[in-house]
Input
Amino acid sequence: MVPVSIVIITRNEADVIGSCINSAKLISDDVVIVDAGSTDDTLTIAAACGCRVYERAWDGYAANKNKGIELARYDWILSMDADEVADEELIKSLHNLDLTSPAIAYDIKFRSYFGQKLIRFGSWGRDHHVRLFNRTLIKWSETMVHETLHLPEYASVKRLKGCVHHYSVKNLAEYNQKCGYYAKLSARQYLQNGKKAGFVKLYFSPLFGFIKNYLFYLGLLDGREGWEIAKVMLKNTRRKYLLLSQMEVRQHKKEAVEDKLAVEY
Output
């Protein structure tokens, strides 16, 4: 086994968690599950697979991932989501990896699926993330959405061979629901950061994002799924800036901006 702890955050992931854990167990003898109130069989499945399971309050994606990092047995952390599965080439790469330098973080290519269809083009087809790192130097930045790793300036990033298969959404309804939720989180984050929802952001950014994803990145070659992805991305880019503009108005009027987001995970 590789001296790496695999940290997975969960909530009601019974339909996908088994495949994720099975691939994780081929890499490490320390799989840490941080669960935020599952009401299905997620915890039962994880415990039966020999994972270390912890139930914790939901404080956001990055915050709960950092909770898992603190509970890990090893300093090297591979962060995975419950709907992600490492392929054979990635598993082999990890077993052959030299983990002597904590100042190196490792980037991994993702292959994302819409239902059972692999999305080869568009922004999904270009997806990759830094997911392997040493906790003595690197942690998750605790933002509301699109959590990122905070790397010191002297750190370097290398790409691993192999990939993670990401079973992103089952269908269009789920994709719409997820994107709507992220739009709310993004709007809240933008408000906190002082970002404004001007005319360009409201009207040109959604259209430009659609053209880039569907035409420039060749999302049209993914057929119906490519069209649906580009269309939903356009709608939700528009939505997040519209929500931001509404929050700005309420803030200007010194009205309370309702905070219902933390319980929606």
User: Anything to note?
Assistant: The longest strand covers residues 156-169. The two ends are 33 Å apart (CA to CA). DSSP finds seven helices and eleven strands in the chain. Confidence is low (pLDDT under 50) at residues 260-265.
